[in-house]
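Milestone M4 deliverable, item 7.
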Amino acid sequence: MAKHIGIVACSAEGAALCYRTICAEAPREMGEHRHPEITMHTHPLSEYMVHIRAGNWDAVAQLMLSSVHKVAQAGADFAICPDNTIHQAFNLVTPRSPIPWLHIAKAVGEKAKKKGFTHLGILGTKYLMTGPVYPDALEKIGIATEIPEERDREEIDTIIFKELVNGIFPEESRLYFNSVIQALKHRGCNAVVLGCTEIPLIVNPNDCPLPTLDSTRLLARAALRKALEEA
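Output delivered:
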């Protein structure tokens, strides 16, 4: 039997993409229409945002712990969180969690290392881009990180919270992301992390100035591999 995956969700579009990826890709390994058991829980994004804006990561951790206890009670063997920003509370959560977790930035780092990428641009919310989640994970494996200029960070943050999390994906915003990625390329980046789990829904790898590392799908695939270990 495959392990039961628990999804601690935060924003709807990213969580849905993660869930769909697991369900869509599992049949290649498990057979037609088959995928591991999956249980997902999320508190409203509004509850998270109050604490994120205040920089209260202890309170963010409490919400994550509330969710992980619910998925564990439903039978989940391990947990994932398809939200990069709230991984800033990850180390406050895991010591008190009833089940183990996979870390989204570690899943991205493993893929980057395999591909030979050494200098990654990081895109995401302003909290993620200026926070420790990716630098801490990637520095350990010898990968440098770069973030956009402040005005671009603010604009990206606005696009994420006004458009992407609400399922709105304008062409103008897609082109804006490409322009920011082009600037990161000029600064020496050889790949870019789509580090908000909604960004893969708007950035097209086929016309992106840099190779992309899709954090949402990479986490989903890592979860699928974990679920199938010794299955």
